[in-house]
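[job 4471] stage=fold_predict status=RUNNING
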Amino acid sequence: MANTLTSLIPELYSNLDVVSRELVGMIPAVTLDPVASRAALNATVRTFSAPAATASDITPGVAAPDTGDQTIGNGTLSITKARKVPIRWNGEETLAVGGAGFGASQIRAAQIQQAFRTLVNEMEADLCALHVNASRAYGTAGTTPFGTAGDYTDASNARKILVDNGAGESDLHLVMNTAAGANIRGKQSRVDEAGTTALLRQGVLLDTSGMMLRESSQIVTFTKGTGASATTNTAGYAVGATVITLAAAGTGTILAGDVITFAGDTNKYVVASGDASTADAGTITLAAPGLRQAIAASATAITLIATSARNMAFRRSAIVLATRLPALPDGGDAAIDRAVVTDPRSGVSFEISMYAQYRQMYYEVAACWGVKAVKPEHMALLLG
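[job 4471] inference complete, writing structure tokens
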């Protein structure tokens, strides 16, 4: 029964093509490390990044300059997910929907499409969950961005955070929820300003403020901690400080992922590590690059920003998604056939396996992956 999946290959790619073009905004915007090789759960994958470049004067000479060596940055991430979506058909079910012809084929196609969708949505959700690693935030909690016609300052101020943090001005992305996308389509679609009818007629999101705009159905609404009346201690903190000690004041919690402000400073900082009780004089850690404005040597009030949607702005290289195929033992397993399909748009590979059982067939769509924010200072939030 070799190659029994061969006839399904066009069907597999067709369904993958549909899924890859749904409301998936993070996957095509991040750095993808898609290798169609196998990896075990919790395996370590090494990622690489180019260092900052330096310029030097041109000096004519007999020989070419002996310069140009660079230290390539590298880091690791773990393959934290090994996931499958099972599909099983027995003979009774096949006959009940019209045999092995049109009925079963159509239903199976829908099941395979849903399997791809389920795995892609999990990857997308894992990427959106990295909002807790962002550096700072802009916007008003509870107010959907782009709500004022002709006003793009939400995008430009999110971009400002990235540029101020040294992210550069290229390959910047803003991934938003559907509410923000609806505001852009409904209130920012003037043809005379956009120079094209694509947004007005087809609803295509156009680049804005030097960023590619995308939508994702997995954008997180983060519930803030319960902290109230918290203050810093009286030590004072310089620009760039990340670890802030609290006074034994206030009540409740400050969570990792909370957005906070300090009295006298309009910057909105994302908390990388929180405090389970603000009354215990503990510490919180701000995401890099830390304070933009010094805190005076006096008790300074801390305010938690309300629960909000976490639209994400970032440079592509700030976030990595590594995908692999699930591990197999030496000699394989009981599958009678196995195929790997790769989405030509994103490069993500999925494995489809087929197992013959007693009077039934078992199909499995599977993938492994891991995500990491490798450059948190090149990430920002646009609150909504």
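[job 4471] summary: DSSP finds seven helices and 19 strands in the chain.
[job 4471] exit 0
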